[in-house]
Amino acid sequence: MMTITVLAILEPDPIPAPPLAKVMNERLKRLANELEHELSRSMDEIDSECEDLVVYISYNSKYTIRWKIVNDVPPKIEAEVARQCANLGYNLWKGSTIYNFNARN
Fold first, then answer.
1. How large a percentage of the chain has pLDDT more than 70?
2. How many angstroms separate the CA atoms of 88 and 76, rounded?
3. Is 56 domain-assigned?
4. What are phi and psi of 52, to 5 degrees?
5. CA distance linking residue 67 with residue 32, whole number of Å
6. Three-class SS state of 14
7. What local confidence, expressed as pLDDT, does residue 105 receive?
8. Which of 5, 67, 68, 69 would staple 96 via disulfide (CB 3.0–4.6 Å)?
9. What is the predicted pLDDT for the residue at 100?
10. Which residues contact 20 (CB under 8 A, 6 or more apart)?
């Protein structure tokens, strides 16, 4: 069974005012939990010898959600994460690379 972890990466110095930063950080944590749950459900259907999947999510400079996989996983796991995140409107974290991904899969 694969262990799936989605971590909300919170900015140490909030750019927005502290009350707004608190709301945004709480939202990010909730979205991380929701994504982890959705990935757990979809990964049950994928036959893989991958033991762990770790995904980071955070806000980019325009306050949209960005994501990246931070450990080595097979391409089919990477594609499934990319599909799920694309469906949610999340952006690939700058500097991350996804090979052979078509958002319409």
1. 86
2. 19
3. yes
4. -135, 145
5. 10
6. coil
7. 39
8. 68
9. 45
10. 14
Domain range enclosing 48: 3-92
Complete edge-to-edge strand list for the sheet that includes strand 91-92? 3-8, 52-59, 65-69, 91-92
Q: What is the pLDDT of residues 47-75, one digit of tens each?
A: 778 899 999 999 988 889 999 999 999 99
Q: List the one residue out of 95, 50, 62, 32 whose CA is nearest residue 79.
A: 50
For residue 100, tell me if it sits in a domain: no
Residue type at 49 in one-letter notation: E
**Mean pLDDT, the chain, integer:** 86
Q: Is residue 101 part of a domain?
A: no
The number of domains in the chain is 1
Determine the average pLDDT of the residues in 38-55: 88
Name the DSSP letter for residue 93: P
